[in-house]
């Protein structure tokens, strides 16, 4: 099967979150299942700077108002197609925001152009290669399915994957005339969404199949609490909805070979984690004592429950713990955490920003990772934690509930526990989970068993890749 993946970011070329990790790992995992996946990604400056030996696969004289080229290249084992459209993507800032953190005002046009390019590739734009299936990720690529539905390509199966339903790509109705779609596309069966244009809504309505990134999240988004206004549509598509939990790249995230950590280790050499613990303490200015180190590696937002971290930080220190935080986001939450770190020098440290190498060291050196998300479609940091013997303490929601086995008495007795879950998702619930973790920490044998069991967890893409391959095959059988 030839699969075209359309995504706004892909690791290791460009990354702002878990979407990039998925878009980068899934093609490699699918290779063993009779598929060839090519990934179309925008030509941001960071992407263009990393490419070598590119060839021009196709050109556009006018792609929603801009000239563009589709470049073909390989990078880190990935078969990449790059939409080289300088008018849309060659600008300072990140993929979605400018240099001062504000959304680009033309994001609707930029990602409609990406989606339209994907649809034209499906039509046969590239000589000698056409996809059997098109797989679009999140709102930035969901319009691919819309363009295909309304421009004569509805016979080609499409999949839209929702990585986070909270981000929907909703814009004013005035942009519709600029999308170069027929008038009937602006309807309840297409893009119209409460009088606006909904990119993700349109993709969910027009795709042959919809997936999301964990079974529990698939169930959650059918409810008003988690459906973000789209639960009615999701319920209408329930027969076409599949929850497939994400995996991680177990070559990149391998404590036995990781060059980004102070000392490699395995489940049978856990004592060697001590060197990473020391390096982590040095990096965050933490005391070198026996108190457990809890880490947070996250966007600092309400969704991620970071206000709960700020609320319990003083208490963690009072209980003898230490806290290392890496992330950026809401200015108020950043300030609250910085204030807490200032109150507890030697017990709490914070690095504002995104630092991939440091995140590896934190997983390798921390004793536990705190993930109190109010909703979490899948989550990857808990999978990294399992892989590195960094015990996850997670809210019981979405993919967190699907991937961490709570250390209740039955699970501990059976030797299958891998971490701690909590609900309700509030400060009291988080404190109780940390109390349970502290009790286990003070029983070294129990803690070591938790680490070892977590490191045995299959967090690879193998099972999930087969589920995607099976989904693709089932769609082709209907084509």
Automatic annotation (TrEMBL):
Keyword list, A-Z: Glycogen biosynthesis, Glycosyltransferase, Transferase
GO molecular function, one term: alpha-1,4-glucan glucosyltransferase (ADP-glucose donor) activity
Domain Starch synthase catalytic: 2-235
Record family assignment: Belongs to the glycosyltransferase 1 family. Bacterial/plant glycogen synthase subfamily.
Catalytic EC class: transferase
Role of this protein: Synthesizes alpha-1,4-glucan chains using ADP-glucose.
UniProt xrefs under Gene3D superfamilies: Glycogen Phosphorylase B
Gene expressing this chain: glgA
Key word Nuclease present: no
UniProt organism field: Shinella pollutisoli
NCBIfam families (alphabetical): glgA, PRK00654.1-2
Matches recorded under InterPro entries: Glyco_trans_1 (IPR001296), GS/SS (IPR011835), Starch_synth_cat_dom (IPR013534)
Enzyme Commission identifier(s): 2.4.1.21
Catalytic function, reaction form: [(1->4)-alpha-D-glucosyl](n) + ADP-alpha-D-glucose = [(1->4)-alpha-D-glucosyl](n+1) + ADP + H(+)
Record protein name field: Glycogen synthase
Annotated positions binding ADP-alpha-D-glucose: 15
Membrane-spanning parts: none
Keyword Oxidoreductase: no
Pathway(s) this gene product operates in, as recorded in its UniProt entry: Glycan biosynthesis; glycogen biosynthesis
Domain called Glycosyl transferase family: residue spans: 288-439
CDD domains referenced in this protein's UniProt entry, alphabetically: GT5_Glycogen_synthase_DULL1-like (cd03791)
